[in-house]
Amino acid sequence: MAFLTLEGVYRDGTIEFAEMPADVPAEGRVLVTFLPANGAPQQARTTAAGEGEMRESLRQRAFAQMKEGVPLGGPPYPKREELYDRIAP
């Protein structure tokens, strides 16, 4: 069965669905997520100015990581003869 999302209200230890689900067996596994009281997700509450500041800080951090570079090892590099010696004849 595919995932099914239903809206409901938690009241006195029970969940009351806004509408009854169709094609759901009498017993099944569920996941319950409690949303904030005002109904807006926490992440959606950011203002446009706050979002702009957050993007700018992420951009600056990405540029700093690019300037730092990615460590790929480094010297001393093996000589060609040493590389061939590693391969068993």
Key terms:
two-stranded antiparallel sheet; 2 helices; 31% helix; 89 residues; elongated; alpha+beta
Uncertain runs are: none
SSE order: EEHH
Q: Which strand-content bin applies to the residues?
A: 5-15%
Structural class: alpha+beta
Largest sheet: 2 strands, antiparallel
Task: Compute the CA-based radius of gyration.
Answer: 28 Å
Tally of helical runs: 2
- Write down the overall mean pLDDT: 79
* Number of distinct beta strands: 2
Large-scale geometry? elongated
> Could you give the order of strands across the largest sheet?
1-2
The termini sit apart by 57 Å
Helix content: 25-40%
Helix-strand layout with pairing:
Elements: E1 8-11, E2 14-17, H1 48-68, H2 80-86
Antiparallel strand pairs: 1-2
Describe the protein's architecture and organization.
With 89 residues, the chain is α+β, with helices and mostly antiparallel strands. It has a domain at 30-68. It has two helices and two strands, in the order E-E-H-H. It has helices at residues 48-68, 80-86, and strands at 8-11, 14-17. A two-stranded antiparallel sheet has the order 1-2. The longest helix is centred in the middle third of the chain and has 21 residues, at 48-68. The chain is elongated and about 75 Å long. The N and C termini lie far apart (57 Å). 0% of the residues are buried.
Concise account of the structure shown:
This protein is α+β, with helices and mostly antiparallel strands and 89 residues long. The chain is built from two helices and two strands.
